[in-house]
Design brief:
Layout lengths: L6 E6 L3 H11 L4 E7 L14 E2 L2 H6 L4 E4 L6 H10 L3 E5 L6 H12 L5 E4 L6 H11 L6 E9 L11 H17 L3 E9 L9 E8 L4 E7 L6 E8 L2 E6 L4 E7 L7 H4 L6 E6 L7 H13 L9 H20 L3 E2 L11
Parallel strand pairs: 1-2, 1-4, 2-3, 4-5, 5-6, 7-10
Antiparallel strand pairs: 7-11, 8-9, 8-15, 9-10, 11-12, 12-13, 13-14
Helix pairs in contact: 3-4, 4-9, 5-6, 6-9
Length: 341
């Protein structure tokens, strides 16, 4: 990179995700990691010898161009607002905030100062989903009918402050809007809490996007089977992405004609070829950091904006509202394009 001068970056939080951020940041080309904030210290030695600080104010005083916010969700808003007020760009872990109002305040704080800010919706950088999105944009599926996601696995002990909707379903909400280029207009959901915690640990949701596409999400922390499944079904067949292995397969509708009159009258589909694509598999977190670095440098980079992150929090809030009231919740599509995102 020929910028002549490296960007100065900071990190807030050395939890399980923060430690991964520290690893990638410390080796990121064109970037110097200059300070890490964690009042608990660096008990895993993840900061690679970088100074450990007690407060965001100390980090700002070091003179950073941007900071990665990987502290607990409830702290995203106060930390983000401090960074925005100091004129520091920020990459905030998902979800961007734990409330819609908090997300709005963050959007306003960064947008009003024209600061680059993004949300760490890492699935956007998964090779299988990047390839799927490019193929949908190229029209390979024709009309899209349905998006189905399943995200299941055992309970992660690192999560204490939110339930499965805000922690996991936000991945599926964001990736669904991102790969289709569409927004949610309605959602209906049921949740259960079986693990003795105050938050929900399983959710089943059915939604609709603004072009009529049907959406199904099944997310839980109650399964010994780990699954990360996304399928998009449309006019020409079905794409299936496994984001654990970063594999993408395509099951095509066969163009086989039948002479049986009764069957021909039914406009169904028949089984066709199955293709498994060979795609380069780079680490999604590395890709996410490179994109954000480029965005800070003013280069074109497809990052998840704070406004898009806020939209995901709005849909997640609608999921919880639907589950609590036992009714379908409508959402107004927002003109994201008008806000440069």
């Amino acid at each position: 990179m020929s910028t002549g001068k490296s960007l100065r970056a900071g990190l807030v939080g050395l939890g399980s995700m923060g430690r991964h951020h520290a690893r990638v940041l410390s080796g990121l080309e064109g970037v110097d990691l200059v300070g890490v904030v964690d009042p608990m210290g660096d008990k895993f030695g993840a900061a690679q010898g970088v100074p450990i600080l007690n407060s965001v104010e100390e980090l700002i005083a070091l003179g950073v161009d941007y900071a990665v916010v990987a502290c607990p969700t409830a702290l995203h808003e106060p930390v983000g607002l401090s960074l925005a007020e100091a004129g520091v760009c920020a990459l905030v872990e998902k979800p961007v905030a734990d409330t819609v109002e908090g997300a709005r305040r963050l959007v306003e704080a960064f947008e009003s100062r024209s600061l680059v800010a993004g949300v760490g919706h890492i699935e956007r950088c998964n090779p299988a989903l990047m390839s799927l999105r490019a193929r949908l944009e190229a029209g390979e599926l024709g009309d899209v009918y349905q998006v189905v996601t399943r995200r299941q696995g055992p309970f992660p002990h690192r999560i204490a402050d939110v339930g499965v909707v805000k922690d996991l379903a936000t991945h599926d909400i964001d990736l669904t809007g991102w790969v289709t280029g569409r927004q949610y207009v309605s959602i209906a959901a049921h949740t259960v809490s079986k693990s003795g915690r105050e938050h929900e640990d399983m959710v089943s949701a059915v939604g609709r996007l603004d072009d009529g596409t049907m959406v199904n999400h099944l997310v839980n922390w109650l399964s010994p089977l780990k699954e990360r499944f996304t399928s998009v079904t449309g006019e020409r067949g079905c794409f299936i992405a496994d984001t654990l292995t970063a594999d993408l397969t395509f099951h095509s509708n066969a163009a086989v004609t039948t002479e049986w009159e009764a069957l021909r009258a039914f406009r169904g589909v028949s089984e066709g070829d199955m293709i498994r694509y060979a795609i380069p598999k780079r680490e999604p977190l590395q890709v996410e950091h490179e994109l954000f670095r480029d965005a800070v440098l003013g280069k074109p980079a497809d990052i998840c904006t704070l406004r898009q992150g806020m939209r995901t929090v709005e849909v997640a809030a609608a999921v919880l509202e639907s589950a609590n009231t036992d009714r379908s919740v409508s959402l107004q599509p927002e003109d994201l394009a008008a806000h440069g995102s």
